[in-house]
Amino acid sequence: MKAMIFAAGFGKRLLPLTQTIPKPLVKIQNKPALDWIIQQLQHYRINEAIINVHYLADQIIHHLKQYQPGFKLTVSYEETILGTGGGLFKTADYWDEEDFYLCNSDILCTADLNNFFSFHTNQRATVTLAVNNEISHSMLLIDEAKNLVGIRQDKADKLVVHPKGKIEAVGFCGLHVINSKIFRYFGHPAEFSIIDEYLKLITKGIKIKTWEIGDVYWIDIGSKEGLENANKHFPGF
Question: Looking at residue 76, which CATH number applies to its domain?
Fold first, then answer.
């Protein structure tokens, strides 16, 4: 399996730290966040990945040169930042006809990815999203069958397809497993936000499932509070 790492963002919530350091290179327990992500990929025998870059891209590209043969990294440079939807769409020619893993460089999660991958395969989904119980201003709406059916933003629910049974709001963990046939269905161009693109896809009958990560460590280090938490409590991989 191949992977994609989102690493193009500006890291505005971490200013002034990210005025001179791109968010993927911010250190967690004396190691850049990006290195933790790559270590996790290798733990799950993922040895090939594409990474999108934009803000302070030269620093990230220079840092990536340290990796030895055995982990293959391809850079997708975005002259204009494309967002998560556009950034993924730009990589369409990179993928084989198989599933791939997509993650953020600012999310640390100790969930068992093998279980995640197996769930996706067994469900025969086009996309599976990892979810938890974190409450935020933007949450996913899912039905009793764990299908994505809509979104909750600022406590307002927007259903885009008819749910199977009751609905609930869940937090999105920033982890995806995706079948490469998804590119057949994307808009041209894709939405700036990958979640907005997913909401379009489910109206076309595309199957997007969710998988609960359970009681494991998860943190978004893109905020000052999250960065402080990770430096104190992240258990490592």
Answer: 3.90.550.10
